Description:
The complex is a heterodimer. By secondary structure, chain A is mainly alpha-helical. Helix content of chain A is about 80%, strand content about 0%. Chain A is built from eight helices and no strands. Chain A is globular and about 50 Å long. Helices cover about 65% and strands about 5% of the residues of chain B. The radius of gyration of chain B is 22 Å and the shape is flat. The two termini of chain B are about 35 Å apart. At the A-B interface, α1, α2, α4, α5 and α7 of A face α2, α4, α5, α6 and α7 of B.
Amino acid sequence: MMKKLMQSVFDKRETLALLSGCCVFLSMIEYIIPKPLPFLRLGIANIPILISLEIFSPALTFVLVLLKIAGQGIITGTVFSYIFLFSFFGSIAGGIAMILSKKIFNKHISMIGISVTGALASNIVQLYIARHVIFGESALIIAPPVLIAGTVTSILIGMFAQSFISKSKWLSMVRNKKEPEND
Amino acid sequence: MIKLPNIFKKILPKTYFYTGLSVMVPFLFTENIAIRFLFTAFIIIMNLFSGRNFRLLPNLILTAGVILANIYPFGGRVIFTIGPLFITQEALISGIEKSLLLIGSVYISRFAVRKQLVFPGKTGLLLYKTFYYFEKFTEMKLNVKSDIIGQIDTRLIEIEGLSAKEDVSSVSSFSAKSGMVNHLFFILVSLFFWVLFIASKFYLGRS
């Protein structure tokens, strides 16, 4: 199974790297915006992950999530910091939730639904870490605004992804293209 | 703008990486708030000298956020009030401690990890390609007043497959030979952190 996944990663490496490069670029934009708490994010770096659900298998989408985590950790330089803990576990939880919701509901769930599911999973895990690693009981105070803000921004991000998927020429090219087996 | 001393130009990405790893341990395990402040200030200065930037405003906002988030469980002596919020001495110290921990660890990490650091193997190659495309995206001139989706779409079409034409076989910063300057740099920076850490354990209290 692992060998098959590695072959799939190799075959689609250019598209995979392109989308992860896009994730890192959007992470960088988010990083520039000042925020009072390390895990208060807009989540725009999840847009390429939502798009990838349309073209990649669940396993490849998960590889993209891992690349996004590593890439943003390196580019923002937070890979050895506490912030990386939030980013790592939040992204993993959000990624798994998005992949599962797409897998389970398939055509019966919109990008907005997938995005909200991912954001909620990510925020809950990050609040759990905040409660147990950094803030203690104070995390309970910040939970409601974090969850509300996360839901609102994830709806907007889902709408953007939905619109991109319906309009994108690049996406139709990727869907129609058979990637080279080897080179 | 700070003029870079020449020594920092000779330091390899892998030296920054190993030095960052080495200083992270004393930074995380020091319990003295003054020493942690000193470590944070030192690493920010090192970041500036090594070409990384420092922005004051995000760090001030982060500190204020962490202090505010620490108000809730603390009783004790009230130092000042902001509207309905009572800021106690314990909450303030705890907030400063935690924000120093967050900010310091971010800057040690930024010091340690450079974009030029290429990890070996297939995963390293995939990460290299990720950064290659990231650079291509940064060259994009995004006009927020016109069709954003269309602009991103065009950019994706333009740059896909470009990295396949690049020769990346020679890229491996971990195999680069490091000279005396790099060794000295690692030893001196690590010594600074470890000596202060050990001294603080023996001679200084928690704050």
